[in-house]
Specification:
Elements (H helix, E strand, L loop, with lengths): L9 E7 L5 H14 L6 E7 L5 E3 L24 E4 L5 E4 L8 E4 L2 E5 L9 H9 L2 E2 L4 H8 L1 H10 L7 E4 L1 H17 L4 E5 L9 E3 L5 H9 L5 E5 L5 E8 L8 E2 L3 E5 L8 H5 L5 E4 L6 H17 L5 E8 L5 E7 L9 H8 L4 H14 L6
């Protein structure tokens, strides 16, 4: 279905969800909703509560931003809603005991979802089944982009450089715990222990002594039964680059490169350093890099984007070592959109302001063919 000419396209901004990143998703969505021009788009905020309920949310009464003292927002909502498939997919209210009113045709969904049960292909699959266009990566790309283990394996197949790592699934641990411990020890110290499918640095621990490994695994497993242990990028700089899908095949655009420098008491770029006041981090946009290294980061950004078959947008994270070696860390298929988030800040430094960025993503989604691509 092409973009309607007789009315404003209806954009359902979907956010919240069941993952540990629920509140970060709410904050990102608040920024996206505020950026969508009401003269161009009919915006419907749809929150997914922590118990999985879909509800109409009112951003005027539920402020989707950090509260006093860093208080995190959550989906409040009231009227339940669902997307009904059809030639013209519709948003329908579902309160019990009432005749379900049709709220209107949905032209595109902007899924501002982070982590499992939203960013990981589950929501994308639902939207594909309903025939609804949406912003961002498709089902497989979203799933692989959320699972650090499969992401690294796909990067390796594509010939992209990654850090040494050990994947630990419940099956691996049950079958050969001693062997898993040996493989982790072979990585050398320090290592980082991460939930395989969590973001926003939830559940990540730095391990400098193998006696602390079990506690780090327990912390990661609080968020995900699958864990990845990575060799630390000792002495490396952390840089990121944004990618926007081109309007023709392969014509992707990369942003200015940013460097994150963690300050204070933080050993790495953890949750507090990412989302709480900026005295925790320093951000250089553009990053001061040798021209050849910067070119390699941009080329690898596009290669990683294409290796995962991403659509719309992605943020690609790297380690740059003192000798100029560049290693791909991960790809975020739906990066944070908060006021502090790297992706919009990199594009702002590239001449694309926040409202223009959001508008471009919606237009890309409206132009996308529904179904298999």
């Amino acid at each position: 279905m092409s973009e309607p000419s007789s009315r404003r396209p209806r954009v359902a901004v979907v956010f919240g969800g069941r993952s540990a990143e629920h509140s970060i998703s709410c904050i990102s969505a608040g920024s996206v909703i505020a950026a969508l021009d009401p003269e161009r788009y009919d915006v419907v905020p749809v929150g997914i509560a922590t118990d999985g309920r879909w509800v109409l949310e009112d951003p005027t009464t539920n402020r989707l931003e950090l509260g006093p003292g860093g208080a995190l927002p959550t989906v409040q909502g009231g009227t339940g809603v669902q997307i009904v498939a059809g030639d013209a997919p519709e948003l329908v209210a579902t309160d019990p005991g009432e005749v379900p009113p049709v709220l209107g045709e949905v032209d595109v969904v902007f899924p501002v979802m982070h982590g499992p049960f939203g960013q990981d292909g589950t929501l994308q699959g639902l939207l594909e089944m309903a025939g609804v266009r949406y912003v961002g990566a498709g089902v497989l790309s979203s799933a692989v982009g959320t699972d650090k283990i499969f992401m690294k394996r796909l990067f390796e197949v594509a010939g992209l450089p990654v850090l040494p790592y050990v994947a630990i699934t419940p099956r691996d641990w049950a079958r050969d715990e001693a062997g898993v411990r040996r493989r982790v020890a072979d990585l050398g110290l320090p290592v980082f222990v991460k939930p395989a499918r969590a973001g926003s640095s939830f559940g990540i621990s730095r391990v400098d002594d193998l006696t602390d490994l079990d506690a780090a695994l327990d912390e990661a497993r609080r968020h995900d039964p699958k864990v990845v242990v990575e060799a630390a990028a000792v002495g490396a700089r952390e840089v990121e680059c944004g990618v926007l899908e081109g309007e023709s095949f392969g014509d992707h655009r990369t942003s200015e490169i940013a460097e994150i420098r963690v300050t204070g008491d933080h050993q790495f770029y953890d949750f507090e350093a990412k989302y709480l006041p900026e005295e925790n981090t320093a951000l250089d946009v553009p990053a001061v890099l040798d021209e050849a290294v910067a070119r390699q980061v941009r080329e690898l950004s596009v290669a990683a984007f294409e290796a995962l078959d991403c659509e719309g947008l992605a943020r690609v994270d790297f380690f740059v070592f003192p000798d100029g070696r560049v290693v791909v860390n991960e790809v975020e298929t739906m990066p944070g959109f908060t006021s502090l988030s790297m992706f919009p800040r990199m594009w702002a430094a590239s001449g694309v302001d926040y409202p223009t960025l959001v508008d471009r993503l919606v237009r890309l989604a409206l132009a996308r063919e529904a179904g298999l691509r």
